[in-house]
């Protein structure tokens, strides 16, 4: 079977898995999110594996992000299980999977648009949170408050959650933060002053346009959990998952992809009643989500430890400054613990698919693909197949950091898909 799957995936040609000409469309276009998976690639990968394995009824993504893998798994009628620490990712994925209430959505839209007009002219009280005026112009604050109040008035929960998703996609666009990075950095003052405010018009257009993206809801089970993947998996039954398909973080969020900073402004506008937040600390400050994610918390005992279960990682650490080593060790401590849990919950004889990217620290490549492969083999998995693909269209900044004496460091331009099988008992 090992040869068959590898041969099948390679039979499409060297550049097939790059999916270079593919643009996001349909349900995957309703909300932007950092480093989104390529939906057609995930679809084809899941299709081939489901067809070849013949024993897959559920799919698990412990880092579901904007839900690409779960949406594609849903199209095959698989039962879905997903975890993400980010409440915004959780909301976006929930909306993609549950859809809208098609019986009421057009009446809801009509009421929503009437309220937008009414509140725009009524001098309502503006929404507020700490440092709101730093991140939004006063006229934008008012118009976002009009949208927020109009959404809160909607009684149908599905439709309301859909509206929040449409709104969230515009909040960053009309904020004072730069679009060239996922981190929160103030734009130049001239750009803030000269920005046209069409947010209400854009919101109405988004609500009307995205409705056609939703498909009929399937009867398969859908379990989405907002929380820490390691903690949640610790409560899951061993040998219970047919198929794991995910793209775990490539490094700690604070220095890799700041999902939390990207999301926090939206989260501070959305009514908490419509968010699942397992830990209030997540929205305590602008970097809390990233701090509470994998490798975000520095543990001095781990930083000093030389107990590293990967010789590949040991050798890479020797080339990196002591200061940077601490963060890398912390990340991999969390990462290895998560992979162990993923192996534990996966059924014997079944597959785990990991999409991995190799970031750079001190301009040295952290070979996450090799480190992961080594760790998984040492923990009872076999490599079934492997794909290396270019990611020229993936939504990531072109430059991610600046190193002394080196200058800007380019972000990754390729990723590895590892397909691993858990040994039989």
Question: Would you give an account of this structure?
Answer:
This protein is of the alpha/beta class. It is globular. The chain is built from 17 helices and eleven strands. The relative contact order is 0.14. The chain folds into two domains: 2-85 and 215-252 and 293-422, Vaccinia Virus protein VP39 (Rossmann fold, 3-Layer(aba) Sandwich); 105-213, no CATH class. The strands form four sheets. It has a four-stranded mixed beta sheet. The model is unreliable at 395-403 (pLDDT under 50).
Structure, briefly:
By secondary structure, the chain is α/β, with parallel strands linked by helices. The chain has helices at residues 2-10, 39-53, 68-74, 87-98, 105-120, 132-135, 138-152, 157-171, 189-194, 199-210, 229-234, 259-269, 288-292, 300-304, 311-317, 322-345, 368-378, and strands at residues 58-61, 79-84, 222-226, 241-246, 346-356, 360-361, 364-365, 381-390, 399-403, 407-410, 414-422. The protein is globular, with a radius of gyration of 22 Å.
